[in-house]
Protein backbone atom coordinates (compact mmCIF):
# COMPACT_ATOMS: atom_id res chain seq x y z
CA UNK A 1 0.00 0.00 0.00
CA UNK A 2 1.27 3.40 -0.76
CA UNK A 3 1.31 7.06 0.00
CA UNK A 4 -1.90 9.02 0.29
CA UNK A 5 -2.66 10.85 -2.89
CA UNK A 6 -1.25 14.33 -3.06
CA UNK A 7 1.76 13.57 -0.90
CA UNK A 8 5.20 12.34 -1.76
CA UNK A 9 5.83 8.66 -1.35
CA UNK A 10 5.39 7.97 2.34
CA UNK A 11 8.14 6.13 4.12
CA UNK A 12 6.20 5.72 7.36
CA UNK A 13 7.56 5.61 10.85
CA UNK A 14 10.76 3.69 11.49
CA UNK A 15 9.56 0.24 12.44
CA UNK A 16 12.57 -1.65 11.26
CA UNK A 17 13.55 -3.04 14.66
CA UNK A 18 10.13 -4.34 15.63
CA UNK A 19 10.82 -8.04 15.24
CA UNK A 20 14.39 -9.17 15.89
CA UNK A 21 15.87 -12.28 14.24
CA UNK A 22 14.81 -15.39 16.14
CA UNK A 23 11.43 -13.92 17.11
CA UNK A 24 8.57 -16.35 16.73
CA UNK A 25 5.59 -15.13 14.70
CA UNK A 26 2.83 -17.73 14.50
CA UNK A 27 4.39 -20.85 13.03
CA UNK A 28 7.38 -18.89 11.73
CA UNK A 29 10.72 -17.66 13.04
CA UNK A 30 12.06 -14.32 11.81
CA UNK A 31 15.49 -14.58 10.17
CA UNK A 32 16.10 -11.04 8.91
CA UNK A 33 14.51 -7.75 7.98
CA UNK A 34 13.84 -7.37 4.26
CA UNK A 35 12.46 -3.85 4.07
CA UNK A 36 9.75 -1.45 5.11
CA UNK A 37 7.01 0.24 3.15
CA UNK A 38 4.60 3.01 4.11
CA UNK A 39 2.40 0.80 6.25
CA UNK A 40 4.19 -2.47 6.65
CA UNK A 41 7.51 -4.10 7.40
CA UNK A 42 8.60 -7.24 5.59
CA UNK A 43 10.76 -9.91 7.24
CA UNK A 44 12.27 -13.15 6.00
CA UNK A 45 11.28 -16.13 8.13
CA UNK A 46 11.66 -19.88 8.23
CA UNK A 47 9.14 -22.41 9.47
CA UNK A 48 9.37 -23.28 13.18
CA UNK A 49 10.54 -26.83 13.85
CA UNK A 50 7.13 -28.30 14.64
CA UNK A 51 5.67 -26.84 11.46
CA UNK A 52 8.31 -28.66 9.46
CA UNK A 53 7.61 -31.91 11.25
CA UNK A 54 3.83 -31.72 11.06
CA UNK A 55 2.62 -34.94 9.42
CA UNK A 56 0.98 -34.68 6.05
CA UNK A 57 2.19 -31.13 5.44
CA UNK A 58 3.67 -30.13 2.13
CA UNK A 59 7.39 -29.62 2.71
CA UNK A 60 7.90 -25.94 3.43
CA UNK A 61 11.41 -25.79 4.70
CA UNK A 62 11.92 -22.87 2.35
CA UNK A 63 11.91 -19.31 3.60
CA UNK A 64 8.84 -17.12 3.47
CA UNK A 65 8.33 -13.38 3.68
CA UNK A 66 6.19 -12.04 6.51
CA UNK A 67 4.47 -8.78 5.78
CA UNK A 68 3.64 -7.29 9.15
CA UNK A 69 1.04 -4.52 9.14
CA UNK A 70 0.78 -2.99 12.60
CA UNK A 71 -2.48 -1.38 13.64
CA UNK A 72 -1.52 -0.38 17.19
CA UNK A 73 -1.55 3.32 17.91
CA UNK A 74 -3.13 4.23 14.57
CA UNK A 75 -6.11 6.47 14.24
CA UNK A 76 -9.26 4.40 13.60
CA UNK A 77 -9.38 5.57 9.98
CA UNK A 78 -5.78 4.44 9.36
CA UNK A 79 -6.37 1.13 11.12
CA UNK A 80 -9.44 0.55 8.94
CA UNK A 81 -7.28 1.28 5.91
CA UNK A 82 -4.73 -1.36 6.95
CA UNK A 83 -7.44 -3.94 7.55
CA UNK A 84 -8.98 -3.11 4.18
CA UNK A 85 -5.59 -3.41 2.48
CA UNK A 86 -4.94 -6.81 4.07
CA UNK A 87 -8.42 -7.92 3.07
CA UNK A 88 -7.72 -7.06 -0.56
CA UNK A 89 -4.39 -8.94 -0.49
CA UNK A 90 -5.94 -12.05 1.05
CA UNK A 91 -8.97 -11.99 -1.25
CA UNK A 92 -6.82 -11.70 -4.36
CA UNK A 93 -4.36 -14.32 -3.13
CA UNK A 94 -7.25 -16.71 -2.47
CA UNK A 95 -9.06 -16.16 -5.75
CA UNK A 96 -6.48 -15.35 -8.39
CA UNK A 97 -3.30 -17.32 -7.68
CA UNK A 98 -0.86 -17.51 -10.58
CA UNK A 99 2.87 -18.11 -11.07
CA UNK A 100 3.33 -14.46 -12.03
CA UNK A 101 1.74 -13.28 -8.75
CA UNK A 102 3.51 -13.68 -5.44
CA UNK A 103 1.91 -16.58 -3.57
CA UNK A 104 0.09 -15.93 -0.31
CA UNK A 105 0.22 -18.87 2.10
CA UNK A 106 -1.80 -17.64 5.04
CA UNK A 107 -2.72 -14.61 7.09
CA UNK A 108 -3.31 -14.11 10.79
CA UNK A 109 -3.49 -11.50 13.50
CA UNK A 110 -0.35 -11.40 15.62
CA UNK A 111 -0.74 -11.75 19.35
CA UNK A 112 2.38 -10.28 20.97
CA UNK A 113 1.48 -8.55 24.24
CA UNK A 114 5.22 -8.29 25.03
CA UNK A 115 5.68 -6.13 21.89
CA UNK A 116 2.86 -3.57 22.05
CA UNK A 117 3.88 -1.99 18.73
CA UNK A 118 3.03 -5.14 16.80
CA UNK A 119 0.41 -6.67 19.08
CA UNK A 120 -2.69 -7.06 16.90
CA UNK A 121 -0.73 -6.55 13.66
CA UNK A 122 -1.99 -8.30 10.55
CA UNK A 123 0.57 -10.75 9.18
CA UNK A 124 0.59 -11.99 5.59
CA UNK A 125 2.77 -15.05 4.98
CA UNK A 126 4.05 -14.88 1.41
CA UNK A 127 6.33 -16.73 -0.89
CA UNK A 128 9.76 -15.08 -0.50
CA UNK A 129 11.28 -13.38 -3.52
CA UNK A 130 14.98 -12.76 -4.09
CA UNK A 131 14.50 -9.03 -4.60
CA UNK A 132 12.57 -6.46 -6.54
CA UNK A 133 12.78 -4.81 -9.93
CA UNK A 134 13.49 -1.55 -8.10
CA UNK A 135 16.66 -3.03 -6.62
CA UNK A 136 17.66 -4.36 -10.01
CA UNK A 137 17.16 -0.93 -11.60
CA UNK A 138 19.12 0.73 -8.83
CA UNK A 139 21.99 -1.62 -9.62
CA UNK A 140 21.89 -0.70 -13.29
CA UNK A 141 20.12 -3.83 -14.59
CA UNK A 142 22.76 -4.11 -17.25
CA UNK A 143 22.80 -7.57 -18.73
CA UNK A 144 19.41 -8.51 -17.29
CA UNK A 145 17.01 -9.80 -19.92
CA UNK A 146 14.79 -6.78 -19.75
CA UNK A 147 12.41 -7.93 -22.46
CA UNK A 148 11.72 -11.07 -20.50
CA UNK A 149 11.09 -9.08 -17.34
CA UNK A 150 8.53 -6.94 -19.12
CA UNK A 151 6.89 -10.01 -20.66
CA UNK A 152 6.62 -11.44 -17.14
CA UNK A 153 4.94 -8.28 -15.86
CA UNK A 154 2.52 -8.40 -18.82
CA UNK A 155 1.71 -12.03 -18.04
CA UNK A 156 0.91 -11.14 -14.44
CA UNK A 157 -1.26 -8.20 -15.50
CA UNK A 158 -2.98 -10.24 -18.21
CA UNK A 159 -3.92 -12.85 -15.62
CA UNK A 160 -5.14 -10.24 -13.14
CA UNK A 161 -7.23 -8.45 -15.75
CA UNK A 162 -8.63 -11.71 -17.10
CA UNK A 163 -9.63 -12.58 -13.56
CA UNK A 164 -11.43 -9.25 -13.23
CA UNK A 165 -8.93 -7.43 -11.00
CA UNK A 166 -6.96 -4.19 -11.31
CA UNK A 167 -3.62 -4.06 -9.45
CA UNK A 168 -3.77 -0.27 -9.05
CA UNK A 169 -0.25 0.02 -7.62
CA UNK A 170 2.10 -1.37 -10.26
CA UNK A 171 5.66 -0.05 -9.81
CA UNK A 172 9.15 -1.58 -9.71
CA UNK A 173 8.95 -2.04 -5.91
CA UNK A 174 5.96 -4.31 -6.46
CA UNK A 175 7.56 -6.39 -9.19
CA UNK A 176 9.41 -9.08 -7.27
CA UNK A 177 11.89 -11.49 -8.78
CA UNK A 178 12.28 -15.14 -7.88
CA UNK A 179 15.68 -16.73 -7.48
CA UNK A 180 15.29 -18.14 -10.99
CA UNK A 181 14.64 -14.64 -12.35
CA UNK A 182 10.90 -15.19 -12.73
CA UNK A 183 8.65 -12.18 -12.27
CA UNK A 184 6.10 -12.10 -9.44
CA UNK A 185 3.75 -9.16 -9.04
CA UNK A 186 3.11 -8.30 -5.41
CA UNK A 187 1.46 -5.84 -3.04
CA UNK A 188 -2.23 -6.18 -3.71
CA UNK A 189 -3.21 -3.77 -0.95
CA UNK A 190 -4.95 -1.53 -3.47
CA UNK A 191 -6.06 -4.26 -5.87
CA UNK A 192 -9.72 -4.09 -6.68
CA UNK A 193 -12.18 -6.40 -8.33
CA UNK A 194 -14.05 -4.89 -11.24
CA UNK A 195 -17.76 -4.37 -10.92
CA UNK A 196 -18.69 -3.86 -14.56
CA UNK A 197 -16.01 -1.73 -16.16
CA UNK A 198 -14.61 -0.19 -12.98
CA UNK A 199 -13.21 -1.03 -9.61
CA UNK A 200 -12.86 1.32 -6.67
CA UNK A 201 -9.74 2.09 -4.66
CA UNK A 202 -9.04 4.35 -1.72
CA UNK A 203 -7.66 7.74 -2.79
CA UNK A 204 -4.10 6.44 -2.65
CA UNK A 205 -1.46 5.33 -5.09
CA UNK A 206 2.12 6.07 -5.99
CA UNK A 207 2.24 9.43 -7.72
CA UNK A 208 4.81 8.48 -10.36
CA UNK A 209 2.56 5.75 -11.75
CA UNK A 210 -0.87 7.44 -11.79
CA UNK A 211 -2.42 8.04 -15.24
CA UNK A 212 -3.61 11.55 -16.18
CA UNK A 213 -7.28 10.72 -15.52
CA UNK A 214 -6.52 9.75 -11.90
CA UNK A 215 -5.41 13.31 -11.12
CA UNK A 216 -8.91 14.55 -11.90
CA UNK A 217 -10.91 11.55 -10.69
CA UNK A 218 -13.68 12.46 -8.26
CA UNK A 219 -13.70 10.72 -4.90
CA UNK A 220 -17.02 8.96 -4.47
CA UNK A 221 -18.45 7.05 -1.55
CA UNK A 222 -16.74 3.85 -2.69
CA UNK A 223 -13.41 5.53 -3.43
CA UNK A 224 -11.82 6.50 -6.75
CA UNK A 225 -12.77 4.65 -9.94
CA UNK A 226 -10.00 2.69 -11.65
CA UNK A 227 -9.90 0.53 -14.77
CA UNK A 228 -7.33 -1.95 -16.09
CA UNK A 229 -6.01 0.83 -18.33
CA UNK A 230 -4.56 2.42 -15.17
CA UNK A 231 -2.26 -0.61 -14.80
CA UNK A 232 -1.33 -0.30 -18.48
CA UNK A 233 -0.29 3.31 -17.92
CA UNK A 234 1.88 2.24 -14.96
CA UNK A 235 3.35 -0.49 -17.16
CA UNK A 236 4.35 2.18 -19.71
CA UNK A 237 6.22 4.10 -17.01
CA UNK A 238 7.89 0.89 -15.83
CA UNK A 239 8.97 -0.06 -19.38
CA UNK A 240 10.60 3.35 -19.74
CA UNK A 241 12.31 3.03 -16.37
CA UNK A 242 13.61 -0.44 -17.21
CA UNK A 243 15.41 0.81 -20.31
CA UNK A 244 16.28 4.32 -19.16
CA UNK A 245 18.20 3.61 -16.00
CA UNK A 246 15.20 4.03 -13.72
CA UNK A 247 14.20 7.43 -15.18
CA UNK A 248 10.55 8.38 -15.53
CA UNK A 249 9.41 9.56 -18.97
CA UNK A 250 7.97 12.62 -17.24
CA UNK A 251 10.43 15.34 -16.22
CA UNK A 252 10.58 16.81 -12.74
CA UNK A 253 12.65 16.63 -9.60
CA UNK A 254 9.87 15.34 -7.34
CA UNK A 255 6.88 13.00 -7.79
CA UNK A 256 4.57 16.03 -7.57
CA UNK A 257 6.48 17.86 -10.32
CA UNK A 258 6.43 14.74 -12.48
CA UNK A 259 2.70 14.45 -11.76
CA UNK A 260 2.25 17.99 -13.08
CA UNK A 261 4.11 16.93 -16.24
CA UNK A 262 1.76 13.95 -16.60
CA UNK A 263 -1.23 16.28 -16.42
CA UNK A 264 0.25 18.67 -18.99
CA UNK A 265 0.79 15.75 -21.32
CA UNK A 266 -2.70 14.39 -20.61
CA UNK A 267 -4.23 17.74 -21.55
CA UNK A 268 -2.25 17.87 -24.80
CA UNK A 269 -0.03 20.73 -23.62
CA UNK A 270 3.22 18.73 -23.78
CA UNK A 271 4.44 15.89 -25.98
CA UNK A 272 5.56 12.53 -24.67
CA UNK A 273 9.33 12.57 -24.34
CA UNK A 274 11.23 9.37 -24.04
CA UNK A 275 14.86 8.67 -23.36
CA UNK A 276 16.95 7.63 -26.39
CA UNK A 277 18.08 4.65 -24.36
CA UNK A 278 14.68 3.01 -24.82
CA UNK A 279 14.93 0.72 -27.90
CA UNK A 280 12.42 1.39 -30.71
CA UNK A 281 10.24 -1.67 -30.12
CA UNK A 282 9.90 -0.95 -26.41
CA UNK A 283 9.48 2.75 -27.08
CA UNK A 284 6.49 2.04 -29.30
CA UNK A 285 5.04 -0.33 -26.71
CA UNK A 286 5.56 2.18 -23.89
CA UNK A 287 4.02 4.96 -26.01
CA UNK A 288 0.85 2.89 -26.49
CA UNK A 289 0.71 2.17 -22.77
CA UNK A 290 1.15 5.88 -22.14
CA UNK A 291 -1.66 6.98 -24.47
CA UNK A 292 -3.03 10.07 -22.73
CA UNK A 293 -6.64 8.99 -22.24
CA UNK A 294 -8.34 5.83 -21.09
CA UNK A 295 -10.09 5.56 -24.48
CA UNK A 296 -6.82 5.69 -26.40
CA UNK A 297 -5.15 3.24 -24.02
CA UNK A 298 -8.01 0.74 -23.78
CA UNK A 299 -7.15 -1.21 -26.98
CA UNK A 300 -3.70 -1.90 -25.57
CA UNK A 301 -4.59 -4.66 -23.17
CA UNK A 302 -1.95 -6.66 -21.31
CA UNK A 303 -2.91 -9.62 -23.48
CA UNK A 304 -2.35 -7.67 -26.72
CA UNK A 305 0.98 -6.29 -25.48
CA UNK A 306 2.08 -9.80 -24.59
CA UNK A 307 1.15 -10.99 -28.08
CA UNK A 308 3.25 -8.17 -29.60
CA UNK A 309 6.23 -9.14 -27.48
CA UNK A 310 5.82 -12.80 -28.42
CA UNK A 311 5.52 -11.92 -32.12
CA UNK A 312 8.72 -9.91 -31.92
CA UNK A 313 10.55 -12.75 -30.24
CA UNK A 314 9.31 -15.13 -32.91
CA UNK A 315 10.38 -12.78 -35.68
CA UNK A 316 13.80 -12.52 -34.11
CA UNK A 317 14.03 -16.30 -33.97
CA UNK A 318 14.50 -16.19 -30.23
CA UNK A 319 17.66 -14.13 -30.15
CA UNK A 320 18.49 -12.48 -26.88
CA UNK A 321 17.47 -8.90 -26.36
CA UNK A 322 19.62 -6.61 -28.46
CA UNK A 323 20.25 -3.58 -26.34
CA UNK A 324 22.52 -2.08 -28.97
CA UNK A 325 19.47 -0.98 -30.94
CA UNK A 326 18.71 1.35 -28.10
CA UNK A 327 20.74 4.24 -29.45
CA UNK A 328 19.97 3.91 -33.13
CA UNK A 329 16.53 5.10 -33.89
CA UNK A 330 14.27 8.01 -33.15
CA UNK A 331 10.52 7.59 -33.19
CA UNK A 332 7.93 10.27 -33.93
CA UNK A 333 6.80 10.45 -30.33
CA UNK A 334 10.25 11.08 -28.95
CA UNK A 335 11.14 14.43 -30.45
CA UNK A 336 12.99 16.17 -27.70
CA UNK A 337 14.25 13.03 -25.99
CA UNK A 338 16.96 13.13 -23.42
CA UNK A 339 20.39 11.95 -24.50
CA UNK A 340 21.37 8.29 -24.48
CA UNK A 341 21.57 6.93 -20.99
CA UNK A 342 20.77 10.31 -19.46
CA UNK A 343 18.84 9.69 -16.32
CA UNK A 344 17.20 13.06 -16.29
CA UNK A 345 15.33 14.60 -13.43
CA UNK A 346 13.16 11.53 -13.12
CA UNK A 347 16.03 9.24 -12.13
CA UNK A 348 16.03 7.79 -8.65
CA UNK A 349 18.90 7.46 -6.24
CA UNK A 350 20.50 4.01 -6.08
CA UNK A 351 19.75 1.87 -3.05
CA UNK A 352 19.98 -1.76 -2.04
CA UNK A 353 22.91 -2.07 -4.42
CA UNK A 354 24.68 -5.14 -3.06
CA UNK A 355 21.56 -7.32 -3.09
CA UNK A 356 20.65 -6.08 -6.53
CA UNK A 357 24.02 -6.97 -8.03
CA UNK A 358 23.49 -10.56 -6.94
CA UNK A 359 20.04 -10.44 -8.48
CA UNK A 360 21.33 -9.03 -11.75
CA UNK A 361 23.82 -11.84 -11.95
CA UNK A 362 21.08 -14.36 -11.28
CA UNK A 363 18.90 -12.86 -14.00
CA UNK A 364 21.58 -12.83 -16.67
CA UNK A 365 21.92 -16.57 -16.63
CA UNK A 366 18.47 -17.26 -15.28
CA UNK A 367 15.89 -19.48 -16.79
CA UNK A 368 12.40 -18.39 -15.82
CA UNK A 369 10.45 -21.54 -15.40
CA UNK A 370 7.33 -20.71 -17.32
CA UNK A 371 7.97 -17.75 -19.56
CA UNK A 372 7.14 -18.28 -23.20
CA UNK A 373 10.43 -16.78 -24.28
CA UNK A 374 12.38 -19.76 -23.05
CA UNK A 375 10.65 -22.13 -25.38
CA UNK A 376 11.08 -19.83 -28.33
CA UNK A 377 14.76 -19.75 -27.62
CA UNK A 378 15.29 -23.30 -26.62
CA UNK A 379 13.06 -25.42 -28.79
CA UNK A 380 15.46 -28.30 -29.32
CA UNK A 381 13.72 -29.58 -32.42
CA UNK A 382 13.57 -26.21 -34.10
CA UNK A 383 10.22 -27.39 -35.52
CA UNK A 384 8.13 -24.99 -33.52
CA UNK A 385 9.33 -22.28 -35.88
CA UNK A 386 9.63 -20.02 -32.86
CA UNK A 387 5.87 -20.16 -32.35
CA UNK A 388 5.76 -21.10 -28.70
CA UNK A 389 2.61 -20.18 -26.79
CA UNK A 390 1.46 -20.44 -23.22
CA UNK A 391 -1.22 -22.76 -21.86
CA UNK A 392 -2.75 -22.27 -18.44
CA UNK A 393 -3.25 -25.45 -16.43
CA UNK A 394 -6.87 -26.21 -15.57
CA UNK A 395 -7.77 -28.58 -12.76
CA UNK A 396 -11.39 -29.67 -13.08
CA UNK A 397 -11.52 -30.39 -9.33
CA UNK A 398 -13.21 -27.30 -7.98
CA UNK A 399 -11.68 -27.64 -4.51
CA UNK A 400 -8.27 -27.19 -6.11
CA UNK A 401 -9.09 -24.14 -8.18
CA UNK A 402 -9.05 -21.64 -5.33
CA UNK A 403 -5.96 -22.97 -3.61
CA UNK A 404 -2.69 -21.12 -3.89
CA UNK A 405 -0.66 -23.31 -1.50
CA UNK A 406 0.38 -25.85 -4.14
CA UNK A 407 -0.98 -28.67 -2.06
CA UNK A 408 0.37 -31.97 -3.44
CA UNK A 409 -3.21 -33.31 -3.45
CA UNK A 410 -4.10 -30.71 -6.03
CA UNK A 411 -1.08 -31.24 -8.25
CA UNK A 412 -1.34 -32.68 -11.75
CA UNK A 413 1.15 -34.81 -13.63
CA UNK A 414 2.69 -34.26 -17.04
CA UNK A 415 3.21 -37.30 -19.20
CA UNK A 416 6.55 -38.54 -20.43
CA UNK A 417 4.95 -40.16 -23.47
CA UNK A 418 1.55 -39.05 -24.83
CA UNK A 419 1.15 -42.32 -26.71
CA UNK A 420 1.19 -44.43 -23.55
CA UNK A 421 -1.54 -44.55 -20.86
CA UNK A 422 -1.54 -41.47 -18.66
CA UNK A 423 -0.69 -43.32 -15.48
CA UNK A 424 1.77 -43.21 -12.55
CA UNK A 425 4.71 -44.77 -14.42
CA UNK A 426 4.35 -42.32 -17.27
CA UNK A 427 4.70 -38.94 -15.54
CA UNK A 428 7.70 -36.68 -15.05
CA UNK A 429 8.70 -35.66 -11.48
CA UNK A 430 7.74 -32.01 -12.12
CA UNK A 431 4.15 -31.39 -10.95
CA UNK A 432 1.87 -28.57 -12.04
CA UNK A 433 -1.10 -26.84 -10.40
CA UNK A 434 -4.28 -25.10 -11.51
CA UNK A 435 -3.37 -21.67 -12.90
CA UNK A 436 0.26 -22.49 -13.73
CA UNK A 437 1.25 -21.07 -17.09
CA UNK A 438 3.34 -23.42 -19.19
CA UNK A 439 5.16 -22.82 -22.41
CA UNK A 440 3.89 -25.07 -25.20
CA UNK A 441 5.67 -25.47 -28.50
CA UNK A 442 3.55 -27.94 -30.46
CA UNK A 443 0.37 -30.06 -30.35
CA UNK A 444 -0.24 -33.74 -30.91
CA UNK A 445 -3.87 -34.34 -31.99
CA UNK A 446 -3.97 -38.12 -31.75
CA UNK A 447 -2.33 -39.15 -28.50
CA UNK A 448 -3.67 -41.43 -25.80
CA UNK A 449 -7.30 -40.49 -24.94
CA UNK A 450 -7.67 -38.84 -21.53
CA UNK A 451 -10.95 -38.32 -19.66
CA UNK A 452 -11.09 -35.71 -16.92
CA UNK A 453 -13.18 -35.55 -13.73
CA UNK A 454 -16.04 -33.95 -15.68
CA UNK A 455 -16.07 -36.68 -18.35
CA UNK A 456 -14.45 -34.46 -20.92
CA UNK A 457 -12.42 -36.63 -23.28
CA UNK A 458 -9.65 -35.62 -25.66
CA UNK A 459 -6.78 -37.16 -27.57
CA UNK A 460 -5.07 -33.77 -27.98
CA UNK A 461 -1.82 -33.12 -26.09
CA UNK A 462 0.50 -30.13 -25.82
CA UNK A 463 4.24 -30.49 -25.55
CA UNK A 464 5.38 -28.14 -22.76
CA UNK A 465 8.82 -27.02 -21.71
CA UNK A 466 10.14 -27.85 -18.26
CA UNK A 467 12.47 -25.67 -16.17
CA UNK A 468 16.21 -25.97 -16.54
CA UNK A 469 17.58 -28.71 -14.35
CA UNK A 470 14.50 -30.91 -14.75
CA UNK A 471 15.38 -34.49 -15.65
CA UNK A 472 13.21 -34.11 -18.76
CA UNK A 473 13.51 -31.01 -20.99
CA UNK A 474 9.86 -31.29 -22.03
CA UNK A 475 6.71 -33.19 -21.08
CA UNK A 476 3.12 -33.53 -22.27
CA UNK A 477 -0.02 -31.84 -20.96
CA UNK A 478 -3.31 -33.48 -21.95
CA UNK A 479 -5.70 -30.96 -23.48
CA UNK A 480 -8.36 -31.77 -20.87
CA UNK A 481 -6.00 -30.09 -18.37
CA UNK A 482 -6.20 -26.68 -20.02
CA UNK A 483 -8.91 -24.51 -21.53
CA UNK A 484 -6.42 -22.92 -23.92
CA UNK A 485 -6.15 -23.97 -27.55
CA UNK A 486 -3.21 -21.94 -28.87
CA UNK A 487 -2.48 -22.12 -32.60
CA UNK A 488 0.61 -24.32 -32.50
CA UNK A 489 2.31 -26.44 -35.14
CA UNK A 490 1.88 -30.19 -35.00
CA UNK A 491 4.48 -32.11 -33.01
CA UNK A 492 6.49 -34.82 -34.66
CA UNK A 493 5.21 -38.15 -33.31
CA UNK A 494 7.44 -38.92 -30.33
CA UNK A 495 9.53 -42.07 -30.57
CA UNK A 496 8.04 -44.93 -28.54
CA UNK A 497 9.41 -45.02 -24.98
CA UNK A 498 9.90 -48.47 -23.49
N1 LIG B 1 7.36 -11.58 -0.72
C1 LIG B 1 8.46 -10.82 -0.65
N2 LIG B 1 9.69 -11.36 -0.78
C2 LIG B 1 10.80 -10.58 -0.71
N3 LIG B 1 10.77 -9.23 -0.53
C3 LIG B 1 9.56 -8.64 -0.38
C4 LIG B 1 8.35 -9.39 -0.43
N4 LIG B 1 7.31 -8.53 -0.28
C5 LIG B 1 7.84 -7.31 -0.14
N5 LIG B 1 9.19 -7.36 -0.20
C6 LIG B 1 10.12 -6.24 -0.09
O1 LIG B 1 9.92 -5.65 1.19
C7 LIG B 1 10.00 -4.23 1.10
C8 LIG B 1 8.78 -3.61 1.75
O2 LIG B 1 7.64 -4.01 1.00
P1 LIG B 1 6.20 -3.36 1.25
O3 LIG B 1 5.24 -4.05 0.38
O4 LIG B 1 5.94 -3.32 2.71
O5 LIG B 1 6.39 -1.87 0.84
P2 LIG B 1 6.71 -1.14 -0.55
O6 LIG B 1 6.04 -1.86 -1.67
O7 LIG B 1 8.18 -0.89 -0.64
O8 LIG B 1 6.04 0.25 -0.26
P3 LIG B 1 4.51 0.65 -0.18
O9 LIG B 1 4.25 1.03 1.21
O10 LIG B 1 4.46 1.77 -1.13
O11 LIG B 1 3.69 -0.51 -0.64
C9 LIG B 1 10.19 -3.90 -0.38
O12 LIG B 1 11.56 -3.68 -0.59
C10 LIG B 1 9.77 -5.14 -1.11
O13 LIG B 1 10.52 -5.31 -2.32
Q: Could you give a short account of the major beta sheet?
A: 6 strands, antiparallel
**Sequence stretches where pLDDT stays below 50 over 5 or more residues:** 1-16, 319-386
* Structural category: alpha+beta
Overall strand count: 21
Q: Record the strand order, biggest sheet.
A: 1-2-3-4-6-5
Distance between the termini: 55 Å
- Give the cofactors and ligands: adenosine-5'-triphosphate
Specify the overall morphology.
Answer: globular
Strand content: 15-25%
Roughly what is the average pLDDT, rounded to an integer? 78
* Radius of gyration based on Cα positions: 23 Å
Helix count from the secondary structure assignment: 12
Query: How helical, in percent, are the residues?
Result: 25-40%
Structural overview:
This protein is α+β, with helices and mostly antiparallel strands and 498 residues long. 26% of the residues lie in helices and 18% in strands. Strand 9 (175-177) and strand 10 (183-185) form a beta hairpin. It binds adenosine-5'-triphosphate. Residues 1-2, 34-40, 42, 65, 67, 102, 126-129, 132, 173-174, 176, 186-187 line the site of adenosine-5'-triphosphate. This is non-specific serine/threonine protein kinase. Keywords: ATP-binding, Kinase, Nucleotide-binding, Serine/threonine-protein kinase, Transferase. Residues 1-23, 312-349 are annotated as: Disordered. It is an enzyme of class 2 (transferase).
In short, what is this structure?
The protein has 498 residues and is of the alpha+beta class.
Write the layout of secondary structure elements.
Blueprint lengths: L23 E2 L2 E9 L4 E7 L1 H5 L10 E6 L6 H20 L8 E6 L12 E6 L3 E2 H6 L7 H17 L2 E2 L8 E3 L5 E3 L6 E2 L5 E3 L22 E3 L1 H16 L11 H12 L13 H10 L4 H4 L4 H14 L37 H12 L7 H7 L10 E4 L5 H4 L10 E4 L11 E6 L4 E8 L5 E2 L5 E2 L2 E5 L8 E5 L20
Antiparallel strand pairs: 1-2, 2-3, 3-4, 4-6, 5-6, 7-9, 8-11, 9-10, 12-13, 14-17, 15-16, 17-20, 18-19, 20-21
The site of adenosine-5'-triphosphate (ATP) has 23 residues, from strand 2, strand 4 and strand 6.
GO molecular function, one term: protein serine/threonine kinase activity
EC number: 2.7.11.1
Keywords: ATP-binding, Kinase, Nucleotide-binding, Serine/threonine-protein kinase, Transferase
